Structures are given as structure tokens and as C-alpha cells.
Amino acid sequence: MSTITLRVNGRAHTVDVEPATPLLYILRNDLGLQGPRFGCGLGQCGACTVIVNGVAVRSCITPTSSVKGEVTTLEGLGGNGTLHPLQQAWIDEQVPQCGFCQNGQIMTAKAMLDKNPHPTDEQIRQGMAGILCRCMTYYRIQAAIKRAAGRNV
Amino acid sequence: MNIEKILLEHGATPSRREFLKTSGMLVVGVSAAAVVGPFVTGADAQGARGLYPDPDYHQLDSWIVIHEDNTATFYVGKTDCGQGTGTAFRQMMSDELDIAYKDTTCIMGTTDITVDQGGSGGSDAIQTDGWPMRRVAAEARRVLLDMGSQRLGVPAAGLAVSNAVITVKADPTKKVTYGELIGGKKFDVTLTGANIDATTGVAKVKPVQELRMVGQSPQRYDIPAKVDGSNKWAVDVKLPGMVHARNVKPPVAGATLVSVDESSVRSLPGFVKVVSKGNYVAVVFEREEQAIAGARQLKANWRKPADAPFPKSDDLFTYMRGATPTSKPAPTLVGNPDAAFAAAARVVEAEYEVPFQGHTAIGPAHATADPSNGQLTIYSNDMKSYGMRNGVAQFLGMPRERVRVVWMDGPQGYGRTAADDAGFEAAYIATELGRPVRMQWMRSEEQAWDTKGPAFVVKIRGALDAQGTLTALDYTARSCDYNHLGYNEPDTVLIAQLMGKRRAMPAAGNSAFPNEMYAIPHRRTALEVVGLPLIWETPLRTGNLRDPNGPQSTFAAESFIDEMAAAAKADPIEFRMRMLTAGNGDDNGFRRARSIAVLKAAAEKYGWQPRPAATGRRTGDILTGRGVSYTYRNQTIVAEIAEVEVNRRTGRVWVKRLVCAHDCGLVINPEGLRRTIEGGMLHSISRALFEEVAFDTEKVLSVDWVSHPTLTHLDAPAQIDVVLVNGDPNPNRPDLPHYGAGETSCKPMIAAVANAIFDATGVRLRRVPFRKERVLAALNAAKV
């Protein structure tokens, strides 16, 4: 065990864990966050996605000791009790069915739009390709991303 | 649904607690959330504390609570898999109660505070369970009007009600609210009805023309918390003293546990226990990541079974054709098919194959169980929470009154998923340890051991006469479904199997016939079931998967109809329409007339120009085609058209455009319905293009998202048009029924894709899934 300090959603947290413990379990079980979720533990589905230093990463395969920058989770996306435009677009488009994967969808879309605010349809498909949804809400997710990017949908 | 939020708003306030105590209603405590329940027969606050009796569906108070602030909470016995049924229930019930939709909340599926409507299943939430909900809400309105009449001194006929305010028609300044009349009190009204679906009061439901919220599309109330991270899911339950469990599954099907070496994990950090009984093994650790490591490191010796438990997946269909059926009832005969085939101008024959396909939820199966105070609370997303409560009580030998299931949101699962199994496992380990236990499966377990939709081989012959009319159909469907698992059965759930607590007589399983209204004068329909060599303690166990067997049988039947249309050189829609319009008569639900309307609506929306299939020009690398398919499920009718692009260099199929015409009668929430239909269609496109459980002769090889691919963002259609049809010949009748939605849209989609691929390429694919390697091989073989 060792003491690790993490900055998550603007606050510092100190935890005493095995350094190799995947970030996901620290966020969920030690910090009590519910946005990132376990889907596969293999980095294949994206349900656990968080943003570290502006990059969407799979927290289920990220050793906690390797995390050096600010971590943003779904809970920290908005701010001061307001919704991020992507979250609002998700509500406007009524995207989720069960909703379990939508953390990864929203967080990945956020990192993508930060780098490319006006993606083409094909760029959206490619950028989101690794985030799985077993309710198959892809069509509405893509519509919500276009809406958040200011396109007419 | 966010139970905590709703209960904090409407249940767990101090004044509410005081009210419940003094009024004799049941108050129970939950570690994770303070849950208060509606009226329970015979319960008093002290005597019943801690017991979990059944809310009495014959009491109006079990369904509806009016609060002092003139709002209402509806308690219903359903669960929501993510289609927004709770929102629809609020629309229906607020209309009948005459209260503003925004002033209502809905609590679903927790066994000790909601009546038992069976949870989810069969796409029946609106179709079946919506009726008692409407009737009890109408009864509450009647009772409140009576109370208002007494309070205001005016006969009920002289009163008007709107948004939970009762007004004297002759003097609108005289009024009283529902909250003023009953907030803080019970209805104490007894309902009647032989079963819960028949529950009714004295009041009649409103004619459809007077419904206001029904037919509108309020946004789903559960979505904001699902996108801002505040929703509390079943995976999020944390209890004081809770430990984490992981299963250690047999390495091959049918293996016998010889020994477990607890010392291989005892010194690992956080070790709590190795649980082992029969062939069931699990490890328990203080922390989640420790449990995962412990399950991987536990040394156990297993003895393989003497005989191979199943053929490898490449040999499955050969095996199924050669197997002796476990059930083979006499075929159903209509007319004289033998004579029709003898007289045919042309006979066409084809066989279709669908492999085992899994639920493979995006989050693996999980549950948390709390054994405090000699009782048991299970926190689960299982869609049949009531069944889990009963099954677990039987499995553990506990009185039902000491077991309850708190239903919470979870990952997609449409049917008999491994959520059943995880609930029993958490319950068993929790009672063994005397501590709260959180059980979660790993991805490889979910892919391999989740219940499967049965594999099918369907053989069909058809006879065309000289005019190109389909005169006879000979259909034989053989499923691999012996020992089909029911829901939450204490003698078939996986932990029971592994412990040897299993029933003597396996379930017979089911095959399936096509559902259409075609006038085909001569038919022979045969349904057969076979089983694998090993039927217990195997990952290849079958259970209901979204519209059980419909996608398989409809793939075969509607592909074959397309083959017959091609043989008759007819347009696929005209060929179908001829068989629908040739029929006489109809059933009470006008299924035939509505089928015609739905097929026509789909063709119009698509802009379908009639021509026989596979007669377009084929140039370039991308071949485009269109395919249609139609079916019904109960009284819901659906026709779907897929437009595909087939890449003849790679074999990749992209379903570029979808049209669905859908008639489920009275629509409660059009926008919610559209999304439900879209999800159902895309789920079946994933089954059509990607999903197949692969296995060797002793274990499943599909263990993650690489070895078991699914539809991704790359495959999403560019355009989806859903047309909501109401083909009822008498749309103004006051009792216009609301039918089901969800599973129907899954049903015809695989065939529509196959038919579109044929139109694009001239190649008929009869084996699901149409992965690019298989498509490319077929194109090459046909020199396309």
C-alpha cells in the first residue's frame, strides 16, 4: 500500500492503496463517484471513461499511480450545478435507454469536441467507435453530439 | 428511477414518517436509503417492523398516495429496462386521476412497497399492466370527487376537476384540492378483481378522446440523473461492512470440483473467505480489486467430464440436424399441403441457421445482498424483482416475509439475464458470511455464462402455382432449447445447478412458428426441440432473449417469403400485399387490416418503387439494396425496410437507412416509443451482422468484446424513419386499446437485412451472422 494524492473534479483526495489498483475502483469505491462504471475491465467498452488532462482514458486499466493530472468524471463535467452542453444535448435528444454506458459516451464526446469542435459525421463515428452501447442508442448519441456542436439535426 | 431522490422528496421526510406511524402504514428501514411503503394489510407499525409483507393490490392505498402538497406518488409493480415505462405510467395515471403530470412521481419494482405486477416481460407494460393502473387512478378520482362533494356541499355532478383541484361548476370560487381532502390520510378503499391485472374500482376509465397527457411526449424523468452522474444504480449500493465477492467458474463445462486450495489466496490482502459448495466456488475480499485478484489466483482442481459436453460451434448445425428431438409434436396442418406441392408449378426449398446469441449486457451481472437482522434485502436490477424475492426465499429456505428485493437501475437486459444468477449468489454468500456482500461477474463470465437465445435450424419448402401464387408452405423449425431456463427458479439458477440442487424434469423448451397474416391455403408447420449432450452446469444454457425465438423464426420465414417473391419474379412488397389482401375476415383486433396498413405505410415512407429483388445494376465496389420484412407480436404489427451498402471488396455490410412502420394501437408517448423501436431494430441488426457465441467442445470461446463483437458507432444508420401507424378501422372507439412495444421491432429486422443484401448482390445469406468474412466468401463463391 502507498499513499497517493489524486485531483478529481477540482478537489484533492489522498488514498492509501496498492499503486497498481485501477483508477476505476478508487473513484467508485473510495471517492464514492458513480459516473464511471465497470463494463469490461479490459479497456474494450469505454463505460469507465474519465478525462485526464483533456484526454479520455479507460479508468479500468489505468493504474492509479500513473495518474498525474486532473481527473474529470461525469459528475465534474458541468459546474456549479449546471449541466455541460453535452449533457443538455443528451437530455434534449432523449438519448439513453438503460443509460449504463452513457458515461463513456458523454466523456468521450467531450474530449473529442474539445479537440475538434465541429466534427464531420465520419469523424464522429470514428471518434466514438470504441464506446459500446448494448441498447444501441448510437443514432441518438450521434444526433446529440451534432446538436452540442451547434449543427442542425 | 432514482429511488433515493423520489423517496427523499415524497417519503422520508419527518412529517411523512410521523404520518405513516400514526396511520398504521408500514415503515421499514433500508441501510442505503430510507424506504417507506404504502398500505399493507394487517401490518401495524411496530409489529410489522422489519418484516416485508406483500402490499395488497386490493387496497387503493397500495397504488396511489396523495400528499399534502397536492402531489401524488404512483406505486406500480413493474420495472423499466430503459424504455421509459415509468414516464408512460405517470402519463396514463395522471390523466385518469386528473392531476398535472408534473405533480406526480412513480416508484417501481421494489417488492415490499409496490404491488406485484411481475416486473418486466413480454413487452406487456402498457398493454397489460397499464389497464389496472388506469382503473385505480380513475377510482381515486371518483373517491376524491365524492369527498369534494361532501366538503363543498354540492353533488359530484356539479363539480369539475382539473390539475387536482375540484371546483364548483356554478361558482368557481368554491374549490378544494386533492391534498386538502386527503393529504395526510388514507383512502381506505377496497378494490376488486380476480387477479392483479383485473384490479378495478367502481369508476370507469376515461374514453380515449378525454386523455390529455396520453399521446404527448414529456421527457423521461429518469434521464437527467443518468447523464449528470447522480443516478444511483444497483452497482452503486454500498453498505456498512460490505465485502466483495467474485465467482470462480468451472474451467470447462460439466467439470467436477476435486479440491480447493484456500492457502493459495489466504495471505492476499483483504482476504475474507473462500465459499465452496458442490461445484460452486467464490472468493470474498474486503475490496473489489482484491476479490478480482483473488479469483484469478485461487488454485482449484477440477476433473473434466468423461464425454464432450457439446460439439464445437462450427459443427453446431450439423449436430442439431442429426440429434434426436427431445420434443416433436405432430405438425399443424392446414388444407392439403401434399396435394398442393404435387400440383405446384415450382417448388422452392431453403434452410436457415441462427447460432446461439447472448444477452451480454454492457455491465456484467451483479447484486448486493444484506443479511442484517436475520432478514435479507437484495439490491438488484433484475427485471423480475418479485420472482427473485420468491426464488431466493425458496432457495435459502427463508420465509418470504423475511426477503425483499429493492429494484434499481442497471445495464440492459431484455429477458432472462444473468442478473437472476448474481442475485441468488449474493444472497447465498451474504447469509453464509452474515455480512453484506456485493457480487459482480467479470466480462468473460458474462459473455460465456450468460443465458443464450437458442440456436435455430429452420427448413422451409414453398409451392408456387403457374400464376406465381404461393399455395403451400411447409415449415419446420428446430431449436436447441431443451432445459430452457425460467426466471429466478430456485432449482435451475446457476448456483443451484452447481450445488446439485436441480429439478428432476428439465423444461421442454420452445421452437417458434412465423407470425404473419398471409393467405396461404395449405400449410404444414412443425416445431422441434433438441438438446446438447450436457444440459446442466454448462455455459450453453438457454433462456428468454428479447422476443424469445421471434428474430430466429422471422429471419427464416420472411427471408423465405422474399425467396418466393424472387422465384415468382414479383416485387417483394407487392408479393406480400397480395397474400394479405387475398385473405377474408379478420380477428377482433383487426390484425389483417392493420398489417396491410402498416406494410403500405412503410413502403410510402421509404419511397419504394416496385421491382423484383436483385434486378438493379451492380457496378463499383459498393452495392446498394433494399429489403423488407413484416410480422406481428400479439396485436402489435410492424413492417421494416432496410437499405444496405455491401462492400464487395471487404464483405462489410452497412445498414444505411431504416424505415419502420409500427402499429401498437394507442400510443402513450410517441417520442419514447420511437426510441424504443430504434433500439430494438439496432439490437437485431447487431444480431444480424455480428453476434455469435463461439465454443470448442468444452468451453465458450467468446469471452470479451473482441471475440464477441457487437454493433458500434461505425455501424449506426445514417437515417432512421419511424412511422407510428394506427391502422384501427375504427380509431374513434372510446376503448381504443394500447398494445405492447419493444420486442416487436426486434423481430423482423434480421430478415430485412438479409433481403436487402440479396437485393444488392443477388446472393442469399441463410446463416446468421452476416460478418464480413462470411459475406465476402459468399460473394466470391457467386462471383459477384
Which helices and strands occur, and which strands form pairs?
The complex is a heterodimer of chains A (153) and B (784).
Chain A: E1 2-8, E2 11-17, H1 23-30, E3 49-52, E4 55-58, E5 70-72, H2 85-92, H3 102-115, H4 121-128, H5 138-148
Parallel strand pairs in A: 1-5
Antiparallel strand pairs in A: 1-2, 3-4, 3-5
Helix pairs in contact in A: 2-5
Chain B: H1 3-10, H2 14-23, E1 27-28, E2 35-36, E3 64-66, E4 72-76, H3 85-97, E5 104-108, H4 125-152, E6 159-162, E7 165-168, E8 171-177, H5 178-182, H6 223-227, E9 243-247, E10 256-261, H7 263-266, E11 271-277, E12 280-285, H8 288-297, E13 299-303, H9 316-322, E14 332-334, H10 337-342, E15 346-354, E16 357-358, E17 366-370, E18 376-380, H11 385-396, E19 403-407, H12 419-433, E20 437-440, H13 443-449, E21 452-453, E22 455-464, E23 470-480, H14 494-498, E24 522-530, H15 550-567, H16 572-581, H17 591-606, E25 622-633, E26 636-647, E27 653-663, H18 670-689, E28 719-724, H19 743-746, H20 749-761, H21 772-781
Parallel strand pairs in B: 4-5, 9-20, 18-19, 23-24, 27-28
Antiparallel strand pairs in B: 1-2, 3-4, 6-7, 7-8, 9-12, 10-13, 11-12, 14-24, 15-22, 16-21, 17-18, 17-20, 22-23, 25-26, 26-27
Helix pairs in contact in B: 3-4, 11-12, 15-20, 16-17, 18-20
